[in-house]
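Entry:
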Amino acid sequence: MNTDVIALAADSTITINDKKTYNGVNKIFMLSNDPPMGIMVFGLGKFENISIETLIKEYSKKTDFKKLKNIINIKNDFLKYLTEVTQATNINIFLDSHLKNF
C-alpha cells in the first residue's frame, strides 16, 4: 500500500457451507474501471444460495459508479442490491460477518 494504490492478493480456494472446498476460484473482482475499484472476498462462496461471484459481477454491470460518487454510497447501494436480488432477511448478519472492512 502507498499513497496511490493498494495491492491485493488471495489464494484460489473457497469453502461453501463450511463443508465443501473448491480450488481455482476468483476472490478479487474489478467493480469499476472509472473510477478504478475492486472488491475482494474471503471465506464466502454463496450468499442466499447464489454465488457471491455472480452477485458481484452482476452488480458491477448494472452500476454507474461515477453517479454514486463515494465508497459509502457504493456500499449502501451494494447492500440494497443484495437485498433486492436475494430477498435477504439477514443482510445485517451478512454485513457484520463479511463486509466489516468495506
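The first strand starts at residue 14 and ends at 16.
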